[in-house]
Amino acid sequence: MVKLEIMGRGESYELAPTKIIGIGLNYRDHIEESHSVKVRGFDREVPAEPVIFPMTPNALVGPEEPIVIPSFLADYGFDEPRVDYEGELAFIVKDRCRNVRPEDALRHILGFTCMNDVSQRNLQTGDKGGWYRGKSLDTFAPAGPRIVLTADVGDPQSLDIRTRLNGKVVQESNTRHMIFSIGDLLAFLSRSFTMMPGDIVSTGTPSGVGPLRPGDTVEVEVERIGVLRNTVRAEAEPVGPAD
To answer: What is the pLDDT of residue 240?
Structure first.
């Protein structure tokens, strides 16, 4: 269970989404670098409509909780195992909504937070089912450190966003560079799915994605929201039954 404070309101909000939806390839500079990530479906074409994928609620963790790289990945013997950070702005749906118009989207958004769309690239590349598993491993969706209500965030399409790895800035952009705006995203999604209170949409990452390793500290910072900080560790090998 992840509870986040609501900034300036003296109360907290429990993240309990019926669905978490990720957005891929929503910054032009990330499209340019995507060929180096070698994930099926990544190319240099600007998408005609949002690229969406599911993330499961078990992946959610809060600020200061560890990102845990699962031990079972070693069983695959990947030549170059890779787990990446992706700093993003996320929004939380306020009410049950369907067929939302882009210009009405903010009325249906409770607020905004930072998210790290942690991605296991080998699974994302190799799984015939697509990106689902590589995006939904336990602890792979850190969110926080707080929720800023829509009324308090200002213009969500003009927020600086950056990611630091061990104190070094590795991603830096602004939400004005999104290909599909927040209004476009909620309109597109709500045509296909009834969006429910608490659903989370992570709006995509700018360029600069890169690998995480045990011992790292990764920070995602979005202007007006704050810094989401998580450490990275390897999962302990499971202990089998005694002989």
So the answer is: 62
